[in-house]
Amino acid sequence: MSAAAARLDVRGLYKRFGGLAAVRDVGFSIKAGEILGLIGPNGSGKSTVMKSILGVERPDGGSVRVDGVEVAGWAPHRIARLGVGMVFQHSRPLHRQTVLENIVFGLLPDRLLGFFPGAAVDARARAIAERVGLTAVLDRRPATLPFADLHRIEIAKAIARNPKVVLIDEPFAGLTARETASVAMLIAEMRNDGRAVLIVDHNVKGISALVDRIYAMHVGERIAEGAVQEVMENETVRRVYLGGALETAARPETAFRDVATPFLDIKNLSVVYDKAQALENVSLHVHQGEFVASSD
Amino acid sequence: MLFWQILIDGFAISSLYALGATGFTLIFGVTGVLNLSHGAIMVAAAVAAWAASGNLGAGAYSGAAFGVVVALALSLATYYLIVRRLQLSRAVREEEKEIFILTATLLWGVMIQEAIAYFYTNNAKTVLPIVEGVVSILGVRTPANEIFTALVCWATIGALWVFVNRSRAGKAVLAASMNPRGVTLLGIELSTVYVGVWAIYGALAGVAGVLLGMFLGVSSYSAGPLTASAFSIVVLGGLGSVSGSLIAAYVVGYLETLTAYLVSPAYRAIPALLLLVAVMYVRPRGLMGRR
Amino acid sequence: MLRRALLSPPVLISLIVVLAASTLPLYVSGYVLGLLTVAYYFGVFSMAWDLLFGFANEVNFGPSFLIGLGAYTAGILDNLYRPPIALCAVAGVLASMTGGVVLALPAPRVRGPYFGLTTLVAVLMLQNFVVVAAGLTGGEIGLTVPDVISIDDKVNYWIALSFMGVSGAILYGLSRSSVGLILQASGQDPVQAAALGFNVTKHKLAAFLVSALFSGLAGALMVFYLGAASVGTFIDVTVGVQVIVGAVLGGRRTILGGVLGAVFLVAFGETLRPLGDLATFIVSAVALAVVLFFPGGLLGMVKGARAAT
Lengths: 296, 291, 309
Hints:
The complex is a heterotrimer.
Chain A: E1 6-17, E2 20-31, E3 35-39, H1 46-54, E4 61-66, E5 69-70, H2 76-83, E6 84-87, H3 99-107, H4 119-132, H5 147-159, E7 165-169, H6 177-192, E8 196-201, H7 204-208, E9 213-218, E10 221-226, H8 228-232, H9 235-242, E11 264-273, E12 276-286
Parallel strand pairs in A: 3-8, 3-9, 6-7, 7-8
Antiparallel strand pairs in A: 1-2, 1-4, 4-5, 9-10, 11-12
Helix pairs in contact in A: 3-4, 3-5, 4-5
Chain B: H1 2-31, H2 38-55, H3 60-87, H4 94-120, E1 134-137, E2 140-143, H5 144-166, H6 168-178, H7 180-185, H8 190-215, H9 223-237, H10 242-262, H11 270-282
Antiparallel strand pairs in B: 1-2
Helix pairs in contact in B: 1-5, 1-8, 1-9, 1-10, 2-3, 2-4, 2-8, 2-9, 3-4, 3-8, 5-6, 5-8, 6-8, 9-10, 9-11
Chain C: H1 2-6, H2 9-22, H3 30-55, H4 63-81, H5 85-104, H6 112-132, H7 134-137, E1 143-144, H8 153-176, H9 178-188, H10 190-195, H11 200-226, E2 228-229, H12 231-235, H13 237-250, H14 257-271, H15 277-293, H16 297-308
Helix pairs in contact in C: 3-8, 3-11, 3-13, 3-14, 4-5, 4-6, 4-11, 5-11, 8-9, 8-11, 9-11, 13-14, 13-16
């Protein structure tokens, strides 16, 4: 077995929901110490691919191999125990437990008769907390923590049992620029540890500096694969993301009757969902009869 | 001869079940609440009608109307005091709200039941019927009351159908059951829709309760079994589906009637329960369930 | 962690309370002892329910299904063949654990309100069966058993108290252990728990079996205390309501709260006995008020007060 053998190997993955094929013939492989970015607009099937790898969704066809072992069709907890960890987009910590207890939880064996975790588990949990930067808040409950720390707990739980493959769902959603940089560093460390990392995101720019390769999806199928630069220059990718050549049909603002007082006027709108900053100081106005589109 | 008797009796009791189940499923379909005080509200309506027409001598029609009004009041009380309070509560986490509402409505039902038993004892009572006498259908001597029951049940269900499908308010209710958020985008106040639905529910439960009181009689002990049969029917038909409940009501009604006539009245509830168990294991969604 | 758990305030306070309670027979009447005996068995019912609801997040609306299976199996066996009480109790436990498996089977595929309804249906089925098979079960009149554990109030009281103490210790210990943590996570977020490598189905089934074990055993012991069993004491939906209210009143997810709630309900119901039917009304009203205004229950209020200081 060569050193370059794939840690995660997906071939011909196929998943349908009712009559809709959400994922069609998707295949890629990730080696140890490599980061693959799976990108695509919302609805392209990338989340389904990730869930199919972990077993949360049962693939209808194709194969998923972790270190050569075929896991397609296995129950998620078996796949997880084999060495696949997932960092969910929305943090779901145990509310009534402290940060330390949350991490210890990720280290527990799947046994019915384990009564109390030992000191070794405790020490390991602390070590992991230190790596992700949670040492200061180990004895606090999740409800008292800021969004970025909740995210770190998710990362800590995912890498607790030293997974060979790490799946990360939209890692930078809701984070500020500084938090994004520190999470990016943690992901880079995962790669340096020799894990195979798959990042799923709909925003290419956010992960382009981090990933080694990109696999672009659209409507359940692959449209491009390769180095960041070459994928971004791909015709189809451009068409899907930017809608082809740009034609402008914009009318000057003075063309509208309510120039001075727009029909819809939003100023400095900030929205926080629980702890995540969804909107920060957004200002926007729309005149009566005007067509304004927003895109990210 | 027996065949026609079973057919007619089964039809009457099924119609009654259908009316009761329709209300129960309407509330679940639109608001997501399984109201376990359902049976108690029906019994309260019947006892109120009995008290009004009997004790207070108000006459059959007024008594019946009074019964429906009582059910309406209790239904709105259930919504405002219990359901709304819990739905807006910050002390209970989202995933637990359902369970709390279930427990609270169960307790509320027990309270209503015990209050009835306290003031009026737990003896069985029959409400003064609006229609009396015996009619002969296909050689079977049937109480006119039975025909009346079936007719009123169907008239009420028909009125509900017209309301939901033909009136603007009714369509708002239907829309709310499919997509509550979407309804607010249309400028419709969701809480108004909820109050409306609980009011309709109260009327339905009231009519069903009063009719039941006239047809078979009730006692405070009936509350539990009534709730049980309503949700059995609703689960069989599919939670949230009114047409499913109607079909299931007839299946259950006829199963019970057949068992009572051909085997023994003591075993009447068993086949329906067995069917329910089978459905739970094989197709938990029920016949036509959506959720 | 083990030492910390053993010496935590709730455990120490519970120990003190149990020790104090064991001295009651020295100065309290036989009537009160009888009430408390029943209350202790109901305490175990509520604690077993809390393990399932408070931790595994499975709403069991028919705890009386499990209780009834245990109680009636033990009672019927005694009536038929008169084996030693211990054997009857074991049979009762096996029956209720089988019932636990039956309830657990649809649980993974059936969500939320549907599962609650399944449990209610189970109770109705058992109730109907008992009434219909009257020759075996005594029907609506009830069953009398020829053997009882003891005719001495004090002995019965101590047996109930120790049983409750041991059950509470085991159930509480489970809830605070790793297994309890896994159960909690499985209940709160099964997808996450599975993604972290835990077999959610296995753990939930285990939770059902443990809950059934204690419910069935307590039910069987109660039959041999009362010397009789009836639908009204063991199976009826109102019994289930009492168990649930006891657990919620005491404080869900505390396990120990179950005993508090059960004792409170029995004591409260007793003081209101002279009012007859109104008693049930008032108890239900108070329980409803707790559910609406103090969903954390009695222990929840205490915890809240401590947190505020």
